[in-house]
Design brief:
Rossmann fold, alpha/beta, seven-stranded mixed beta sheet, 32% helix
Length: 233
Amino acid sequence: MTDDPSFIHLAGVAKSYGRGEERLPIFDGLSLDIPRGDFVAVMGPSGSGKSTLLNLLAGLDTAEAGRVSIGGSDLSVMGEGARGRWRTQTLGIVFQFYNLLPMLTAAENVELPLLLRPLSKRERRERVATVLGLLGLQERARHYPRQMSGGQQQRVGIARAIVTDPALLLCDEPTGDLDRRSADEALAMLNLLNRELGKTIVMVTHDPAAAKVARRVLHLDKGTFRPEVAEAA
Ligand SMILES: Nc1ncnc2c1ncn2[C@@H]1O[C@H](COP(=O)(O)OP(=O)(O)OP(=O)(O)O)[C@@H](O)[C@H]1O
Protein backbone atom coordinates (compact mmCIF):
# COMPACT_ATOMS: atom_id res chain seq x y z
CA MET A 1 0.00 0.00 0.00
CA THR A 2 2.63 2.47 -1.08
CA ASP A 3 0.13 5.18 -2.00
CA ASP A 4 -1.78 4.75 1.28
CA PRO A 5 0.44 6.13 4.02
CA SER A 6 0.11 4.42 7.38
CA PHE A 7 -2.36 5.90 9.80
CA ILE A 8 0.31 5.69 12.49
CA HIS A 9 3.86 6.27 11.28
CA LEU A 10 6.89 6.35 13.56
CA ALA A 11 10.31 6.74 11.96
CA GLY A 12 13.64 6.92 13.72
CA VAL A 13 12.11 7.85 17.05
CA ALA A 14 14.52 8.52 19.90
CA LYS A 15 13.45 8.99 23.51
CA SER A 16 15.35 8.94 26.76
CA TYR A 17 14.78 9.96 30.35
CA GLY A 18 17.09 11.87 32.64
CA ARG A 19 20.11 13.99 31.81
CA GLY A 20 23.82 13.66 31.08
CA GLU A 21 25.40 10.55 32.52
CA GLU A 22 22.13 9.67 34.20
CA ARG A 23 20.47 9.51 30.80
CA LEU A 24 18.42 6.34 30.26
CA PRO A 25 17.77 5.66 26.57
CA ILE A 26 14.39 4.03 25.92
CA PHE A 27 14.07 4.25 22.12
CA ASP A 28 16.88 4.86 19.69
CA GLY A 29 15.57 4.77 16.13
CA LEU A 30 12.21 3.12 16.71
CA SER A 31 10.02 2.73 13.62
CA LEU A 32 6.44 1.53 13.39
CA ASP A 33 3.64 1.57 10.82
CA ILE A 34 0.03 0.81 11.65
CA PRO A 35 -2.68 1.05 8.99
CA ARG A 36 -6.09 2.57 9.67
CA GLY A 37 -8.50 0.01 11.10
CA ASP A 38 -5.82 -2.18 12.66
CA PHE A 39 -6.04 -3.55 16.21
CA VAL A 40 -2.56 -3.94 17.64
CA ALA A 41 -1.60 -5.40 21.00
CA VAL A 42 1.78 -4.26 22.33
CA MET A 43 3.33 -6.71 24.77
CA GLY A 44 6.70 -6.82 26.45
CA PRO A 45 8.45 -7.05 29.79
CA SER A 46 8.20 -4.36 32.42
CA GLY A 47 10.42 -1.44 31.51
CA SER A 48 10.52 -2.26 27.78
CA GLY A 49 8.95 1.10 26.89
CA LYS A 50 5.26 0.29 26.38
CA SER A 51 3.92 3.25 28.38
CA THR A 52 6.51 5.52 26.82
CA LEU A 53 5.24 4.44 23.39
CA LEU A 54 1.62 5.13 24.36
CA ASN A 55 2.58 8.57 25.69
CA LEU A 56 4.28 9.38 22.37
CA LEU A 57 1.25 8.17 20.40
CA ALA A 58 -1.05 10.26 22.62
CA GLY A 59 1.08 13.34 22.11
CA LEU A 60 1.51 13.50 25.88
CA ASP A 61 5.25 13.25 25.46
CA THR A 62 7.55 14.22 22.58
CA ALA A 63 10.35 12.38 20.82
CA GLU A 64 13.88 13.83 20.89
CA ALA A 65 14.44 12.78 17.30
CA GLY A 66 12.45 11.18 14.51
CA ARG A 67 8.88 11.48 13.39
CA VAL A 68 5.57 10.60 15.03
CA SER A 69 2.75 11.06 12.54
CA ILE A 70 -0.87 10.05 13.13
CA GLY A 71 -3.66 10.49 10.61
CA GLY A 72 -1.45 12.82 8.58
CA SER A 73 -0.66 15.06 11.57
CA ASP A 74 3.03 15.27 12.38
CA LEU A 75 3.07 15.44 16.19
CA SER A 76 6.84 16.00 16.20
CA VAL A 77 6.43 19.54 14.83
CA MET A 78 3.33 20.54 16.80
CA GLY A 79 3.43 22.68 19.93
CA GLU A 80 1.77 21.59 23.14
CA GLY A 81 -1.43 23.54 22.49
CA ALA A 82 -1.82 22.12 19.00
CA ARG A 83 -1.18 18.62 20.30
CA GLY A 84 -3.86 19.13 22.95
CA ARG A 85 -6.40 20.17 20.32
CA TRP A 86 -5.35 17.30 18.08
CA ARG A 87 -5.80 14.91 21.03
CA THR A 88 -9.38 16.00 21.73
CA GLN A 89 -10.26 15.48 18.05
CA THR A 90 -8.45 12.26 17.27
CA LEU A 91 -7.98 10.20 20.41
CA GLY A 92 -9.83 8.22 23.01
CA ILE A 93 -7.85 6.73 25.89
CA VAL A 94 -8.86 3.73 28.01
CA PHE A 95 -6.99 3.41 31.31
CA GLN A 96 -6.23 0.42 33.50
CA PHE A 97 -7.91 1.96 36.54
CA TYR A 98 -10.74 3.61 34.57
CA ASN A 99 -9.89 7.19 35.71
CA LEU A 100 -13.55 8.07 36.31
CA LEU A 101 -14.39 11.11 38.40
CA PRO A 102 -15.99 9.75 41.58
CA MET A 103 -18.36 12.67 42.12
CA LEU A 104 -19.92 12.34 38.67
CA THR A 105 -22.44 9.76 37.49
CA ALA A 106 -21.67 7.37 34.64
CA ALA A 107 -23.53 9.64 32.19
CA GLU A 108 -21.71 12.75 33.46
CA ASN A 109 -18.32 11.04 33.18
CA VAL A 110 -19.09 10.03 29.61
CA GLU A 111 -20.32 13.54 28.79
CA LEU A 112 -17.06 15.21 29.92
CA PRO A 113 -15.12 15.10 26.61
CA LEU A 114 -18.17 16.55 24.83
CA LEU A 115 -18.04 19.71 26.95
CA LEU A 116 -15.10 20.81 24.77
CA ARG A 117 -17.31 20.58 21.66
CA PRO A 118 -19.77 23.11 20.26
CA LEU A 119 -22.78 20.90 21.00
CA SER A 120 -26.10 21.70 22.63
CA LYS A 121 -27.03 20.02 25.90
CA ARG A 122 -29.58 17.95 24.02
CA GLU A 123 -27.02 16.77 21.45
CA ARG A 124 -24.63 15.86 24.26
CA ARG A 125 -27.33 13.87 26.05
CA GLU A 126 -28.24 12.02 22.86
CA ARG A 127 -24.63 11.04 22.20
CA VAL A 128 -24.12 9.93 25.80
CA ALA A 129 -27.30 7.81 25.68
CA THR A 130 -26.15 6.22 22.40
CA VAL A 131 -22.75 5.14 23.69
CA LEU A 132 -24.10 4.02 27.06
CA GLY A 133 -26.58 1.88 25.11
CA LEU A 134 -23.80 0.48 22.93
CA LEU A 135 -21.88 -0.53 26.05
CA GLY A 136 -24.99 -2.05 27.69
CA LEU A 137 -24.99 0.59 30.41
CA GLN A 138 -28.40 2.22 29.92
CA GLU A 139 -29.50 1.15 33.41
CA ARG A 140 -26.32 2.55 34.96
CA ALA A 141 -26.47 6.11 33.61
CA ARG A 142 -27.25 7.67 36.99
CA HIS A 143 -24.96 5.46 39.03
CA TYR A 144 -21.75 6.74 40.56
CA PRO A 145 -18.47 4.84 40.04
CA ARG A 146 -18.57 3.51 43.63
CA GLN A 147 -21.93 1.89 42.86
CA MET A 148 -20.53 -0.06 39.91
CA SER A 149 -18.32 -3.13 39.51
CA GLY A 150 -14.86 -2.82 37.98
CA GLY A 151 -16.17 -4.26 34.72
CA GLN A 152 -19.00 -1.72 34.58
CA GLN A 153 -16.61 1.11 35.40
CA GLN A 154 -14.32 0.02 32.59
CA ARG A 155 -17.25 -0.01 30.18
CA VAL A 156 -18.01 3.57 31.29
CA GLY A 157 -14.33 4.33 30.62
CA ILE A 158 -14.66 2.88 27.12
CA ALA A 159 -17.89 4.84 26.56
CA ARG A 160 -16.12 8.05 27.57
CA ALA A 161 -13.23 7.23 25.21
CA ILE A 162 -15.51 6.80 22.18
CA VAL A 163 -18.19 9.42 22.81
CA THR A 164 -16.36 11.94 20.59
CA ASP A 165 -16.10 9.29 17.83
CA PRO A 166 -12.28 9.35 17.70
CA ALA A 167 -10.43 7.51 14.93
CA LEU A 168 -7.86 6.10 17.34
CA LEU A 169 -8.26 4.34 20.68
CA LEU A 170 -5.24 3.92 22.93
CA CYS A 171 -5.71 1.36 25.70
CA ASP A 172 -3.31 1.05 28.61
CA GLU A 173 -3.75 -2.38 30.23
CA PRO A 174 -7.55 -2.21 29.83
CA THR A 175 -8.09 -5.61 31.47
CA GLY A 176 -5.36 -5.28 34.10
CA ASP A 177 -7.75 -4.60 36.98
CA LEU A 178 -10.60 -6.90 35.93
CA ASP A 179 -11.66 -10.47 36.66
CA ARG A 180 -11.66 -12.79 33.64
CA ARG A 181 -15.36 -12.39 32.84
CA SER A 182 -15.32 -8.58 33.01
CA ALA A 183 -12.05 -8.56 31.08
CA ASP A 184 -13.63 -10.65 28.33
CA GLU A 185 -16.63 -8.31 28.18
CA ALA A 186 -14.35 -5.28 27.82
CA LEU A 187 -12.34 -7.08 25.13
CA ALA A 188 -15.51 -8.04 23.25
CA MET A 189 -16.42 -4.37 23.23
CA LEU A 190 -13.02 -3.31 21.89
CA ASN A 191 -13.32 -6.03 19.25
CA LEU A 192 -16.70 -4.66 18.19
CA LEU A 193 -15.38 -1.10 18.05
CA ASN A 194 -12.58 -2.25 15.79
CA ARG A 195 -14.48 -4.64 13.51
CA GLU A 196 -17.85 -2.87 13.28
CA LEU A 197 -16.94 0.79 13.70
CA GLY A 198 -13.45 0.66 12.17
CA LYS A 199 -11.65 2.19 15.13
CA THR A 200 -7.89 1.82 15.04
CA ILE A 201 -6.79 0.42 18.40
CA VAL A 202 -3.36 0.24 20.03
CA MET A 203 -3.52 -1.67 23.30
CA VAL A 204 -0.70 -2.23 25.76
CA THR A 205 -1.34 -5.45 27.63
CA HIS A 206 0.17 -8.27 29.66
CA ASP A 207 -3.00 -10.33 29.17
CA PRO A 208 -2.57 -13.14 26.60
CA ALA A 209 -6.38 -13.28 26.13
CA ALA A 210 -6.35 -9.58 25.24
CA ALA A 211 -3.57 -10.15 22.74
CA LYS A 212 -5.64 -12.89 21.07
CA VAL A 213 -8.47 -10.45 20.40
CA ALA A 214 -6.12 -8.08 18.57
CA ARG A 215 -5.37 -8.53 14.88
CA ARG A 216 -1.61 -8.27 15.47
CA VAL A 217 0.75 -8.57 18.41
CA LEU A 218 3.92 -6.49 18.57
CA HIS A 219 6.54 -7.54 21.08
CA LEU A 220 8.57 -4.71 22.52
CA ASP A 221 11.84 -5.65 24.15
CA LYS A 222 14.42 -3.17 25.43
CA GLY A 223 13.02 -0.41 23.27
CA THR A 224 12.79 -2.30 19.97
CA PHE A 225 10.13 -4.42 18.32
CA ARG A 226 10.97 -8.05 17.81
CA PRO A 227 11.09 -8.66 14.04
CA GLU A 228 8.61 -11.50 14.05
CA VAL A 229 4.99 -10.44 14.29
CA ALA A 230 2.42 -12.98 15.42
CA GLU A 231 -0.66 -12.74 13.19
CA ALA A 232 -3.98 -12.98 14.95
CA ALA A 233 -7.02 -14.76 13.54
N1 LIG B 1 9.39 9.98 33.65
C1 LIG B 1 10.38 9.11 33.72
N2 LIG B 1 11.59 9.47 34.21
C2 LIG B 1 12.61 8.59 34.26
N3 LIG B 1 12.54 7.32 33.86
C3 LIG B 1 11.36 6.89 33.37
C4 LIG B 1 10.21 7.75 33.28
N4 LIG B 1 9.18 7.05 32.75
C5 LIG B 1 9.65 5.81 32.52
N5 LIG B 1 10.95 5.71 32.88
C6 LIG B 1 11.80 4.51 32.74
O1 LIG B 1 11.77 4.17 31.36
C7 LIG B 1 11.72 2.74 31.19
C8 LIG B 1 10.53 2.38 30.33
O2 LIG B 1 9.36 2.67 31.07
P1 LIG B 1 7.90 2.34 30.55
O3 LIG B 1 6.96 2.82 31.62
O4 LIG B 1 7.70 2.86 29.18
O5 LIG B 1 7.91 0.74 30.52
P2 LIG B 1 6.71 -0.29 30.39
O6 LIG B 1 7.11 -1.27 29.35
O7 LIG B 1 5.43 0.45 30.18
O8 LIG B 1 6.72 -0.97 31.82
P3 LIG B 1 5.50 -1.60 32.69
O9 LIG B 1 5.06 -2.86 32.00
O10 LIG B 1 6.14 -1.89 34.01
O11 LIG B 1 4.42 -0.55 32.78
C9 LIG B 1 11.71 2.16 32.60
O12 LIG B 1 13.02 1.77 32.93
C10 LIG B 1 11.25 3.30 33.46
O13 LIG B 1 11.77 3.20 34.76
